[in-house]
Structures are given as C-alpha cells and as structure tokens.
C-alpha cells in the first residue's frame, strides 16, 4: 500500500533534510536581497576574490569554469528549485545577448546526483555550460545561502555582484551589471 504525503509536509521534509545536509534552501520571493550579501558574513561576498574552478559540462557545452580575464555569471542551482526554473531562460537570454562580448556562464548544480541535470538544462533552455558539483566542493568554497545564488565575477577575478534567490524582473538589474563589466 502506498502512503500519500501531503504536499506541504513533503516540501517541509525536503527542506529539513536539505538544511541538515548543510546546503542552502531554495530562495525566491522573500529571500534575502542582493544587498544583504555584502553584510551577511557568510560565504563569498561582493569585493571578495572568486574561487576559480573548472568542471565538465553535462549538457555538451564545454567546461563550467571561472577563470581570470572573463566576466562570469556563476549560478548555484538545483533541479528541485522552483525559482531556478524561472532563472534559466532569463540567463540564457543574457548569454545569447552578451556571449560575443565575452560573457561566460558557469551553472553549478548542487544536486546530490547528476542524473536529472541534463534534462533540466534542456527543458529550461540552457545552452550555456551546466555542470555538477559532486560532493559540493565548489559550493563549500562559495557557501551560497539560497538556491539559486548567483555571483557576477569581473575580469579581475573579483565578485562584483551577488544575487540571492531569483525574483521576477531581476534580469534587468543583472543585465545592467553585466553590461558595465564587459
């Protein structure tokens, strides 16, 4: 016999397990705003040197990397994260608009397993590099507080902007921030 768990209880259980694992919760409306990243004292903040990394892409788009000399949008996300489903198409629009100018996107999944990552990327229109942070080694360096958490890294390797969660309409602000750095 199959037991049905009410949706609210299932969601709370999933968030509780995620918190127990030491990983950030999903953040959308009501999540801390970008300015709080400057003062939170946790993880990478604006003005910090961005940890560099390079992992294989799971969607055939080369490497998922942060390297000096490039403006890079580093996005920590997960397949179970509802705001991540909204952010991917918006990030793809920015990638299409600024790729020729040198924008890179490094989308780093913090899922415990990599199985659903390529399908998520395809379903949500990602043609930018999407990779898997096996063992959460990269997330341990950045310490994102919400899913998604996005860091804009300048050509000098410094974190210029931090966005916690994803909020409808936020892409206009992100567009402006990227444009100023390219």
From TrEMBL:
Record keyword Signal present: yes
Signal peptide annotation: 1-21
Keywords from the UniProt entry: Redox-active center, Signal
MF terms (GO), sorted A to Z: antioxidant activity; oxidoreductase activity
Domain Thioredoxin residues, every copy: 44-182
Protein name listed in UniProt: Thioredoxin family protein
């Amino acid at each position: 016999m199959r037991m049905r768990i009410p949706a609210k209880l299932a969601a709370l259980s999933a968030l509780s397990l995620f918190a127990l694992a030491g990983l950030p919760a999903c953040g959308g409306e009501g999540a801390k705003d970008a300015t709080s990243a400057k003062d939170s004292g946790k993880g990478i903040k604006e003005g910090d040197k961005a940890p560099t990394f390079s992992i294989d892409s799971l969607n055939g788009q080369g490497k998922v990397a942060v390297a000096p000399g490039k403006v890079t949008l580093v996005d920590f996300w997960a397949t179970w994260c509802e705001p991540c489903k909204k952010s991917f198409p918006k990030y793809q629009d920015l990638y299409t608009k600024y790729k020729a100018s040198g924008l890179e996107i490094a989308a780093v999944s913090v899922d415990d397993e990599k199985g659903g990552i390529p399908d998520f990327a395809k379903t949500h229109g990602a043609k930018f590099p999407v990779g898997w942070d096996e063992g959460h080694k990269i997330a341990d360096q950045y310490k994102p507080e919400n899913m998604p958490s996005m860091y804009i890294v300048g050509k000098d390797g410094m974190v210029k902007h931090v966005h916690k969660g994803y909020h409808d309409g936020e892409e206009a602000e992100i567009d402006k921030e990227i444009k100023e750095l390219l």
